[in-house]
């Protein structure tokens, strides 16, 4: 009977903590979802400003070349 008691204790210790009710699983990618959201919003916000600045710089470079043709 002592053997049976040891087996039950070992199986209880070997359980995965995620299977215990009330515990949550860690995020799959290792970062909370809000960090990724902030990064995406930052890229959208600052990306638009950078693209606009690049467009203005391109116009400054191309306009002097195109003016003699018009």
Task: Please give a handful of descriptors for the protein shown.
single chain, 70 residues, mainly alpha, 2 helices
What does this structure look like?
The chain is mainly alpha-helical. The protein contains 2 helices and no strands. The model has no long low-confidence stretch (mean pLDDT 76).
Describe the main β-sheet briefly. none
Secondary structure: helix percent:
55-70%
Give the DSSP E fraction (strand runs of 2 or more residues).
Answer: under 5%
> What is the average per-residue confidence, as pLDDT, rounded to a whole number?
76
Q: What characteristic shape results from the CA principal axes?
A: rod-shaped
Q: How many strands?
A: 0
How does the helix and strand content classify structurally?
mainly alpha
Annotation field: number of helices: 2
| Rg, Å, rounded | 30 Å
* Unreliable runs: none
* SSE ordering: HH
Distance between the termini: 100 Å
Biased composition (Acidic residues): 1-10
Region (Disordered): 1-31
